[in-house]
Amino acid sequence: MSNEAATATTPAEAAPAPEPIPHGIGVSLPTADARAKTEGTFPYAADLWAEGLLWAAVLRSPHAHARILSIDTSHARDMPGVRAVVTHEDVPGSPVHGRGKADRPVFASEVVRHHGEPIAAVAADHPDTARMAAAAVIVEYEVLDPVTDPEQAFEAEPLHADGNLIRHIPLHHGDPSVSGEIVVEGQYRIGRQDPAPIGAEAGLAVPRPDGGVELYLASTDPHTDRDTAAACYGLEPERVKVVVTGVPGATADREDQGVQLPLGLLALKTGCPVKLTATREESFLGHAHRHPTLLRYRHHADAEGRLVKVEAQILLDAGAYADTSAEALAAAVGFACGPYVVPNAFIEGWAVRTNNPPSGHVRGEGAMQVCAAYEAQMDKLAKKLGVDPAELRLRNALATGDVLPTGQTVTCPAPVAELLQAVRDFPLPALPKDTPEDEWLLPGGPEGAGEPGAIRRGVGYGLGMVHMLGAEGADEVSTATVKVHDGVATVLCAAVESGQGFTTLARQIVQETLGIDEVHVAPVDTDQPPAGPGCRGRHTWVSGGAVERAAKMVRTQLLQPLAHKFGMSTELLQITDGKITSYDGVLSTTVTEAMDGKELWATAQCRPHPTEPLNESGQGDAFVGMAFCAIRAVVDVDIELGSVRVVELAVAQDVGRILNPAQLAARIEAGVTQGVGIALTENLRTARGLIRHPDLTGYALPTALDAPDIRIVKLVEERDVVAPFGAKAVSAVPVVTSPAAIASAVRAATGRPVNRLPIRPQAAVVTTQ
How many other C-beta atoms are found inside a 10 Å radius of the C-beta of residue 51? Predict the structure, then answer.
């Protein structure tokens, strides 16, 4: 008998029991939708379909500033296949909307204030017909001189009835008469960045039998979008429903209201479903961008390099409408001195309207702009004192218990010095060899025009900080429901999964609390209680906290009958790997047996401690919590061509508590890479208010070839006691910090001031006499 046959007839040994699948807090649980997204089967708004579907197109202004003399829609209405054309005359409710302030018209009526402002919308039976009909709407304009310089906005003719000044914050902290032995000054400019989502805006509107409408959108704040739409449609909020579709990336307010509001109007007018998928150009023209900012700084220090006073002027260009500019200004002014101890600070901040493209919420708004400026000032100060830049920063590092220039005491963990020391002491990358085989390491990449002899290496540092959640009295609240039946848990929470990993976190929380492996997160719509917008780490803190509280309430419902039966409190029972056991081992049963076919559920809210608005002197406890980051950048600069290659970014960050290691690392790496684009390539250029290249050819996003080696050298887990799980937001602060660190490294390599982002090639060229 052959060995093979003998093996076949020998009784098989019992297979070892499979290892339990790790789950719960602290595990790198994969996302539930990962496979669908990689296989291309995940449904986004652009993929939706409905019976009797019509297609929409929006006519946008070709001018940055113009008076509308007349709008003739007759040619568009007469085109075959066109079902409806709507303008400002067809808006039955509020003609204006806005996230921070309602000053933005649904359709321009008398004047257009920025390039791409919506004028009219068309519904037709084919997308090409809709676009041709939109182009056939004849608008007669009187072109006006645009206000494009924010400094001129103070004296220019008002663009709105309430003027061009949106907000002014004069921050006064300490003694204005003090002066330091060493003084450095600088002026800095930050360009306009676009969120550049992977998928452009899209949506579907479906009329309802009750005269309402359902909007299927990639919304990150569905309840606000519902309320805005209902007000514009002249409907009660309960007659408008927003259903959240897959969100193809979001680093800002995801949905352009200029897309979704016309959709609902056209659906209500035609009685048919209406779909719109924006082109990339329409996406650039429609949604909000990062605030271009002008900053002037003066730093005072003593002979040892310790900061004595900081004076600054910060001017945010809000574009045509207010949006969230007041909030961005509060962050810019509040963090204008950075994570440093500054006993005396005098900051003037303004946000003004112009005819430039609208600005709004983009990850790290306000904090990113000032970080680039105050870190440049720290480099100047170090150079003037002859002190190592990292050492100078350490002498001034903020810590828990210190006071911000707003007068707020830092009560959360603030391990700024520890973070900086970690990146400073991390080994530097090896120098590239000067051989033909390694020429790809030169700035410019393979076949680049640079010469190895023109390459200079620079090492720079950046320290950044951001606030978490809303600020200045914002009512941060989220509601969640957890249901358990037949060994399966379901989470209902209107927190939108926009790539930040909330649905994965919600599953982990329930797994940890209830010992149930199979957890589903229900799709989001406005029939659920509100959870607020998906920004500033809100859903990790507020929505995650609501899920945790609801799960703990279900846990109590599950354990109370058992505790009562055995004469003990629920605190003496624990749930691990689906089993319920008592401290003394007397009780041992499974969660499924304890459920006994029952359905348990609970609803809970999470609301952090309140904040307050900044007063007339810029003082107040305006921020719920803060997160900090230190980055060391290593760059190679071709001083003849001005090209820059980011070799390595070493990152240390305080994260409170690691909830999902793989997800956390991915968020940090993504934020750092986004910062590389801000530092070197991303600038949405305008000429007299007109966007010059509204496409991904003219707007240069960093690619995989531009991404440097990212070394996460330290994650400080010092839990914030007021935050659920003690965790902090992780994605915004590396975006804020990495551009400043890269600019610092370029300064070190070239000796040039580098006072503008993105860094232009001429700023990195060193001329020899």
Answer: 7
